[in-house]
Amino acid sequence: MCGIIGAVGREITVGIEECLSHRGPDSQDHYATDVAGASIYLGNTRLSIIGLGEQGTQPMRDGGVSITYNGEVYNYRELQAELQTAGHSFESDTDTEVLLKGYQEWGLEPLLERLHGMFGFALLDENTGKVHVCRDRMGVKPVYYVDSAEGFVFASEIKAILEGTDVDAVLRRDRVAEYLANHWVYEPDTLFEDIYKLSAGTYVTVDCGTGETAFSRYWDPISDAKPPDSPRDDLTPLLETTIDEQMRSDVPVGMYLSGGIDSSLIAHYATQRNPEMTALHLRDDDRNEGGEFRNVQRLDDEYDFELHSFTPRESMIEIYKEMIYYLDEPVADPAIIPAYLLAREASDRDIRVMLSGMGGDEIFAGYRRMKIVRWQQYLRWLWPAAAASAALDPDRNGGRRQNLDRTARYLRSPSPANYYTLAYYFSREEIGRLLEQPAWHDRYADRIDDLLGDRELDSVAEQLQFLDLRGYLASHNFLYADKASMAAGVEVRVPLASHRIAEEYFRQPLPEKMTDGLKTPLKSTARDIFGDEYVDYKKEGFGFPIEMILETEDVQAELSMMVDDERIERLFDIDYLESMVKDYYEGRTPNAMKLWNVYTLWLWLEEFDVAVPQASA
């Protein structure tokens, strides 16, 4: 796992890969040359996982082709054997060299079609005068880029682009409404003007001579998935082979263990290969009697792995602020904190690779909101009752009231463009008033239509699952998981988000995924292994006390600074923002996550000194 940066025809600071050293603390290097009259720069910082020592040094070069690579190709051994049969010899036992030789033997798209893994890499082919920048199918690993008349630049993290080039940190105002709606923005956009994310399953080819760029989608979760009416085989063999592949490493592999069925299944199959591997569990002492905690205890009793259960003691808000720098983009989700704490614990124990259960909810319909989606045609007429119940709930800031309110807003107009109201917190009217843009939702609806494109999605439910896969997973969960783990120099692998599992199960009809509540295929497998009681636990997760943090004097003082900030005044209706703050602290409205959203945006503006342009007329 590494950090990559590069440029085609654009001036870049030599040695800028140093600012990505947290992603690759073992070594760093670069290769600079001229091709077809354009200056080329490839930089890399390396976290050694496969092929230790100097044999894996990057950028790696062979036969006029160079590569800078971040990620893992799990089936590299099989590909290496295939290439050896074709006459290639290898100087290292690395997946990096497999990519290099595979490109030479098969070409780019046939190579990409063969890969099982997570990656972002760039190949410079001096023979053809082209640079290819690629991202994995599911979007586990990030690749950012700037494509302009001055040239093309790419990197694993935005900070490398800002620090290594003359690209300025400027807010993209037309995506702020989307950020408020989602708490993040959909790829390929970011909140930085002119800086984009390469979409999952996509590569871009840059012609060194002309500077022209061509984007190609080589994989899609709809067109490349098994049709929804196809029979599904037993999930077990696919889980076994996927987890077995992702256990491949030349350094120790550990696992995160929450007590949920996703991480428990991974623990079951992973310990078949390595019974004594280390498991890390982040414990919430306020909830240590819950079903997930009991599941962790049971696994600890029945398996031979080494369990380390720990409770964080430091300030959660200080960790969150520190993570703003590593995130690059504002993602208003406190889940970044446990993600970092777990990765830091792994790093302290000298474990560089961890297995995570992330991805199961998006592929197998694991979110409770999917129950509303499944029955929306029958529930739609109930939205007035849900709205009235929310208004009458005596707990003004309680989760029940918020859930009723969100359900009512969605059922009033169930559609892909209104999905954010079911999943998140702001209403259409609140965003319009806050930004003084009553028509913002029309642009947001167009944005959702563009994301769905011309894909043949059979139902609104399938459209919403696609938005979860390409949005909530690739643009949110994977983003913070990558940044949090790499901040600690740890690689996180996500077996349940394998593209092969997605191809098999993503288009399975929603009713089949929910015959016993949520994510039936995973539950059925888990029932066979652990039994009904284990599976039917009450899900809790690690609690993050946003309300308690908002009550602290320091944060209240910062909120006062925020509303006085000239950039915030330029963005928002300050009177309305101040009323939101006042209503929350006086107990009238459940605005905690809404304030957290704006607060996170402000912390990000501060951290990266982002300029906020005036609104266009």
List the helices and strands and how they pair.
Layout: E1 2-8, E2 27-35, E3 38-46, E4 60-62, E5 65-73, H1 76-85, H2 95-106, H3 108-114, E6 117-125, E7 130-135, E8 144-148, E9 151-155, H4 158-164, H5 176-182, E10 196-197, E11 202-207, E12 213-217, H6 236-246, E13 253-256, H7 261-273, E14 278-282, H8 291-302, E15 306-310, H9 316-327, H10 336-348, E16 353-355, H11 360-364, H12 369-374, H13 376-379, H14 383-392, H15 399-412, H16 419-423, H17 428-435, H18 440-452, H19 460-487, E17 491-493, H20 499-505, H21 510-513, H22 520-530, H23 532-535, H24 546-550, H25 553-564, H26 566-571, H27 574-585, H28 592-607
Parallel strand pairs: 13-14, 13-16, 14-15, 16-17
Antiparallel strand pairs: 1-3, 1-9, 2-3, 4-5, 5-6, 6-7, 7-11, 8-9, 8-10, 11-12
What would you note in describing this structure?
The protein has 28 helices and 17 strands. The protein is α+β, with helices and mostly antiparallel strands and 617 residues long. It folds into three domains: 2-217, Aminohydrolase, N-terminal nucleophile (Ntn) domain (Glutamine Phosphoribosylpyrophosphate, subunit 1, domain 1); 236-365 and 473-535, Rossmann fold; 545-617, no CATH class. α6 (236-246) packs across α7 (261-273) and α14 packs antiparallel against α15. The longest helix has 28 residues, at 460-487. The protein starts with a strand and ends in a 10-residue tail after the last helix.
Features:
3 domains; 617 residues; 17 strands; Rossmann fold; Glutamine Phosphoribosylpyrophosphate, subunit 1, domain 1; alpha+beta; 6-stranded antiparallel sheet
